[in-house]
Write a structure and sequence with these properties.
The chain is α/β, with parallel strands linked by helices. The chain contains 31 helices and 26 strands. The radius of gyration is 31 Å and the shape is globular. The chain starts with 8 loop residues before the first strand and ends with a helix. About 3% of the residues have low confidence. The protein binds phosphoenolpyruvate (PEP) and magnesium ion (MG). Magnesium ion (MG) binds next to helix 25.
């Protein structure tokens, strides 16, 4: 880092204009031998093309990139204007920091500057200090050293509380805290020891490094300060939604230890995902992305960065949906946290500041992310340090977008391998293809990292934290990876390969037995049959569902045909897909849900106007009725496919009789045009009005399928995608269960059957309660088919009914879960 000496500081400077102030710092830089006098002119010209006012009384004038030759040596000079100086209209400057930058040496110093930008008290102090060393220390000693300045006084309105939970202020409690804090207008600070954080910034809270049992002082200043302190203190006392990272099921999976004893020397790591893999090693090389350090047009660079962040957000949203549909909410939760991190205002603000110093978007973003990650990494707490990896993951997603780089996970060899990496990000792991990546071996990482959770959900054996030696292993060396015991064996002797292969096959045999049982129907102990079908979102998933023992497809989400493309799919294209599915299903039923786009799923080619509440807007059947051609094309494809297998049509988001009748009318017209066979109709029950009108709706359809994901969000008024509310939006809430009860009763009277295709159908407790309420079909994620069948086989319908009746009388979701 460059040195700041007292001759670089002009205290109590005098200037009548911005130009004069620039001249003051310019002269200092010239006098210190940093640049030629002509560069002052360049600094003035820069003001014509961009505004160098940073905010809160600080400006950072610097010259044009094209004049860099006029700089001898990188330097910084500071002029202090205690009375304030007009920079641009409405901008008063107290500290003018002139920069002559030939290289990047000044960046660390600027980063220190950004740490004090939102600290009004510190800036006032520097604007009035009579000791130049105060300024030098503050700019050269980094954020941690800031505490050698007197800390600002605590706000009078405050409360001390003890932090509970097992892991201190890690990402989840910090997110919960910020979420509450942002509902208040007042300024909120949190003190832990000598560190103070902005209570509305997740990163700032993480940087407190607050461990469990530490005392937090929650302080607020402003209109609603009393309420804010009370709410936050209460939330901290209640544990800030903190839970253990690993569920019992996860840890059993991670620690089941059938012993594989081999003679080849082992490299030992931590067992993170069970199973045995035997394959050659392949080194996963994180791509080095290169960026020009400098760029000429800050406006353009800022715009590029904002667009890349917006695209990154959309990608994370899609990844969340994909992992959620495949493996469940818990496994997918990390991608909600990533969205939160990507939305951190500080990250963008700091990058923009750096861009305005003449740097490119990629360079500035990288600096901002690396600095934040380094701060988080320096914390004591291991769980918190793992968040640094998440920050870098989020950061490189944006960098790749800026560099138009390819996804690393898509650059795998064609033959099966065991992947070796320093560490893998959750994003990279989620994209791995388990048929090509048989195992994962990492030098770093931990069993609670999200990468390990995702590896388990993909059923890829993994050993983590095996040390740096694994990075020196030769490419292509044969490896036995034992994910049960956290070991790997490189270039094993022949007998070991044989032993490991045998053990692998034994496991396979056990799985195979389970798979055989999964084809048997699920009868309760007293003979009640529950049909277990699967949710699918692609032709490949339909195949996988059948292999997993599903007795059909209870919900085909057809949106996959319509998303991530420039135009809607043609009738022929849709027909080919549905036909491929009926062929795979070979007589098993296929419930095709007509397009449920809108809400969080956008198809830009539909050119829908932006909506304030997309989940309450043009979504599902409403959209299809408003775009009859889109609807008709899909219905034509479905009716053509109905000639090839038992298809049922299901309409999503029905909220009124009129909608159902209008949809059926169009379908009937299409059927007649095609001389197609009659098919059964059903509707999704996912809107409260549909529950209340279930008796009337039931007269017009053959079945109901309850979409508990949406029904829960609309009954509880909690956005299902909300990073914090989503956890509370529990479909086992008695309010939702009572809605299901009303629906089943109405259906029974009308003589039609009821299924459930929301996530709760695949929850062991959910399956028992739903069948007890009279639901006769459960449509679950593919990975849950065999376990839900096995679960139902152990229960009696009488017990299920009793359980359901007790659940209906409960007052909270927690009470239901505790039954
Ligand atoms: C539901 O809402 O429960 C459902 C199954 O539909 P989706 O998740 O596709 O909205
Ligand atoms: Mg739904």
């Amino acid at each position: 880092m460059i040195q700041l000496e007292t001759q670089s500081i002009q205290l109590n400077a005098v200037a009548n204009s911005k130009a004069e102030a620039i001249s003051v710092v310019g002269q200092l830089l010239v006098g210190n031998g940093n640049m030629q006098p002509a560069y002052i002119q360049s600094m003035l010209q820069r003001e014509q093309v961009s505004n160098t006012y940073l905010g809160n009384g600080i400006a950072i004038p610097h010259g044009l990139a094209s004049d860099r030759e006029l700089i001898h040596e990188t330097g910084i000079a500071i002029a202090q204007f205690p009375q304030g100086l007009d920079w641009n209209t409405g901008e008063t400057v107290y500290l003018v920091i002139g920069i002559a930058a030939r290289s990047d040496e000044h960046i660390e110093l600027l980063a220190n500057l950004t740490h004090i930008l939102d600290d009004v008290a510190a800036i006032q102090h520097l604007a009035n200090t009579t000791d130049p060393m105060h300024i030098i220390r503050r700019l050269t000693q980094g954020s941690a050293a800031a505490s050698d300045e007197p800390l600002p006084d605590d706000f009078p309105c405050h409360e001390d509380v003890v932090l509970k939970g097992k892991a201190g202020m890690h990402a989840r409690p910090a997110t919960a805290f910020v979420d509450i804090a942002r509902q208040f207008e007042c300024d909120i600070r949190v003190r832990c020891g000598s560190k103070v954080a902005n209570g509305k910034s997740m990163l700032a809270l993480l940087k407190l490094g607050a461990e469990t049992q530490s005392t937090l002082r929650i302080m607020a200043q402003g209109k609603d300060e009393t309420l804010a302190v009370a709410a936050l203190a209460e939330a901290v006392r209640n544990g800030l939604e903190d839970e253990e990272e690993l569920t019992e099921q996860d840890s059993q999976a991670a620690h089941a230890t059938p012993v594989l004893e081999l003679t080849t020397p082992a490299i030992t790591g931590i067992a993170a995902s069970p199973g045995i893999a035997i394959a050659p090693l392949h080194r996963f090389h994180p791509e080095t992305l290169e960026f020009a350090a400098m760029a000429d047009d800050p406006q353009h660079e800022t715009e590029r960065l904002k667009q890349a962040i917006a695209t990154g957000m959309r990608q994370l949203q899609a990844l969340h949906e994909e992992v959620n549909a495949r493996s469940g909410a818990k496994q997918a939760a990390i991608f909600l946290a990533h969205q939160e991190l990507l939305g951190e205002p500080d990250l963008l603000a700091e990058a923009i500041r750096t861009i305005h110093l003449g740097h490119s978007a990629g360079w500035a973003w990288n600096l901002s992310v690396q600095q934040k990650a380094a701060e988080v990494e320096s914390l004591q707490d291991a769980l918190l340090r793992e968040r640094a990896a998440d920050l870098r993951d989020v950061g490189s997603r944006v960098l790749r977008l800026l560099a138009h780089a390819k996804d690393q996970a898509s650059c795998m060899p064609d033959t099966p391998v065991i992947l070796v990496a320093e560490d893998l990000s959750p994003s990279d792991t989620a994209k791995l293809d388990p048929t090509r990546v048989l195992g994962i071996l990492t030098a770093a990482g931990g069993p609670t990292a999200h990468t390990a959770i995702i590896a388990r959900s993909l059923d890829i054996p993994a050993v983590v934290s095996a040390g740096d030696t694994v990075l020196t292993l030769p490419e292509g060396a044969l490896c036995i990876l034992d994910g049960d015991n956290g070991k790997c064996y490189i270039s094993p002797v022949a007998e070991d390969i044989e032993r490991a292969e045998k053990s692998r096959q034994q496991r396979h045999a056990i799985r195979h037995m389970e798979a055989l049982a999964c084809y048997q129907p699920a009868f309760t102990t007293d003979g009640q049959r529950i049909e277990v079908v699967a949710n699918a979102g692609s032709a490949q998933e339909v195949e996988l569902a059948i292999q997993a023992g599903a007795e059909g497809i209870g919900l085909l989400r057809t949106e996959f045909l319509f998303l991530h493309r420039d135009a809607p799919p043609t009738e022929d294209e849709q027909f080919a897909t549905y036909h491929a599915m009926t062929r795979s299903l070979n007589g098993l039923p296929l419930i095709i849900r007509t397009l449920d786009i809108g809400g969080d799923k956008e198809a830009p080619y539909l050119q829908l106007p932006p909506e304030q509440n997309p989940f309450l807007g043009m979504r599902g059947i409403r959209l299809c009725l408003a775009k009859p051609e889109l609807f008709r094309t899909q219905l034509r494809a479905i009716y053509r496919a109905a000639n090839t297998g038992p298809i049922r049509i299901m309409f999503p988001m029905i909220a009124s009789i009129e909608e159902l009748l209008a949809a059926k009318e169009i379908a009937e017209e299409v059927r007649k045009e095609l001389h197609a066979p009659n098919v059964e109709f059903g509707i999704m029950i996912e809107v409260p009005s549909a529950v209340m009108m279930a008796s009337e709706l039931a007269r017009h359809v053959n079945f109901f399928s309850i979409g508990t994901n949406d029904l829960t969000q609309y009954v509880l008024a909690m956005d299902r995608m909300h990073p914090h509310l989503a956890r509370q939006a529990d479909a086992l809430h008695p309010a939702v269960l009572r809605m299901i009860d009303l629906t089943v009763k109405a259906a029974r009277e009308a003589g039609i059957w009821v299924g459930v295709c929301g996530g709760i159908a695949g929850d062991p407790k959910g399956a028992a309660i739903l069948s007890g309420l009279g639901v006769s079909e459960l449509s679950v994620s593919i990975s849950s088919v065999s376990s839900i069948k096995a679960r139902l086989r152990k229960l009696s319908s009488r017990d299920n009914q009793q359980l359901a009746q007790t659940a209906l009388r409960c007052k909270t979701a927690a009470e239901v879960r505790a039954l």
